[in-house]
From TrEMBL:
PANTHER family: HIGH-AFFINITY BRANCHED-CHAIN AMINO ACID TRANSPORT SYSTEM PERMEASE (PTHR30482), SLR1201 PROTEIN (PTHR30482:SF4). The lineage of its organism: Bacteria, Bacillati, Actinomycetota, Actinomycetes, Micrococcales. This is Urea ABC transporter permease subunit UrtC. GO terms for cellular component: plasma membrane. It is found in: Cell membrane.
């Protein structure tokens, strides 16, 4: 009688148990290795923006910095969808413009009421005798604020689901989003009765009853902008370290695997796209009282690409990189565009090409590259999760070998 040896039992991952995702590096940026690093980064930013800037800058300087901060809000959202989700959003000017024009319409109506009129001046010049219903909706401050939050988010949700559910991605998504920005600018220009066409809306005197010509009120406005930007950074830091952040990076790197594990990549992308649209809309709404004007030139294809350039230069997959890059590019544009108006556009394009081609992680990745070159005995490597390199696909072999198991509550 012969006996057959049975091979040792092997354990296989259960398909009904914990689902495993391709994990990401623990820290998405130089200052996001843990709560302590995030608090240090936010603390430094709060001191610089809330204390140092008001004490050292005059009224014009604060207004200029406030403009940079409004544009940095758009960069925060782009960093989320592009750096973490791999979606090259080239049409964020659409949501920036929606928030800006809703705020501008409300402020124009408020100024018109203070003047004792019922219809804005440019409408009267175009022969309008009755206020359009679209304008009447945002006349109340609460409704205007709600519209700034809900309308761009809803538009992004509808467009995002329609696009991502059909698995449109890569260059096709980039071209489509850019086309939306161009179409939106053309739509605004083609409605001179509703939007004053290419001239835009300007000459605002008050915001929610506060006189914008008062220096104290403008200081408060700047502080509000700074606090909101810091709050956005805190939210994105939490998102980066959350389960949603892991899912977003997993979709970026291995979308089909995530789909086979039972997740819906289209839903994950849509949520991220909606968050980025909300950030852009808030930035646009604050841009109007800070700068004092909004026109199609601020929301078309060129501004949308300018948002991307700042994010790419700073480091699209890092936490603070998009903000710092956006502020730096905006400052350089203000200084160099006046001195070299014809050369600044070409310089912007050259910087974008050089960064994408030779430093895909942006300037923020330089620290991570330097740390990787240090010997492990001197504190190099990523063993402590403190490296500052961004989470780019293929940057670190650990990104594709480490696994994160779904929490018990989510099973």
């Amino acid at each position: 009688m012969t006996t057959t040896a049975t091979p040792p039992a092997t354990t296989t991952p259960s398909t009904t148990g914990a689902r495993k995702l391709p994990s990401v590096a623990e820290g998405p940026g130089v200052w996001t290795t843990g709560p302590r690093g995030a608090l240090i980064g936010l603390g430094i930013g709060a001191v610089l923006l809330l204390v140092v800037a008001p004490l050292t800058l005059g009224g014009f300087g604060l207004d200029l910095l406030g403009r940079y901060l409004c544009m940095a809000m758009v960069a925060v959202g782009i960093g989320l969808v592009w750096g973490r989700g791999g979606m090259l959003a080239m049409g964020q000017g659409v949501y920036f413009g929606l928030g800006a024009y809703i705020m501008a319409m409300h402020m124009t109506l408020a100024d018109t009421t203070l003047e004792g009129e019922s219809i804005p001046t440019f409408m009267r010049q175009n022969g309008v005798e009755r206020l359009p219903e679209l304008w009447g909706i945002v006349q109340h401050p609460v409704i205007a604020v709600a519209a700034i939050i809900l309308v761009p988010t809803a538009v992004a949700g509808l467009l995002g689901w329609a696009i991502f559910s059909r698995r449109v991605k890569g260059a096709y998504f980039a071209i489509l989003s850019q086309a939306l920005a161009a179409a939106f600018a053309v739509l605004i220009i083609g409605q001179p009765v509703l939007t004053n066409g290419s001239n835009g809306l300007s000459n605002f005197q008050s915001l929610f009853g506060w006189d914008l010509d008062d220096s104290g009120n403008r200081l408060v406005l700047f502080l509000v902008v700074a606090v909101i930007l810091l709050a956005m950074l805190a939210v994105t830091w939490q998102l980066y370290r959350s389960r949603f952040g892991e899912l977003l990076v997993a979709v970026r790197d291995q979308e089909e695997r995530v789909r086979f594990l039972g997740y819906d990549p289209a839903l994950i992308k849509t949520v991220a796209y909606m968050i980025a649209a909300l950030f852009a809309a808030i930035g646009g709404a604050l841009f109007v009282p800070v700068v004092g004007i909004i026109s199609p030139a601020d929301i078309g294809v060129v501004p949308s690409i300018a948002f991307l350039i700042g994010v790419a230069i700073g480091g699209r997959a890092t936490w603070l990189g998009p903000v710092l890059g956006s502020i730096a590019v905006s400052f350089a544009g203000t200084q160099l565009a006046s001195a070299f108006p014809s050369a600044w556009v070409y310089l912007q394009g050259l910087l974008f090409v050089l960064v994408i081609g030779f430093l895909p992680g942006g300037l923020a990745s330089v620290i991570g590259l330097l740390r990787r070159r240090r010997p492990e005995g001197r504190g190099g490597g990523r063993g402590d999760g403190s490296a500052g390199a961004p989470d780019e696909p293929g940057d670190d072999p650990q990104d594709t070998t480490r696994e994160a198991t779904e929490p018990e509550a989510a099973r």
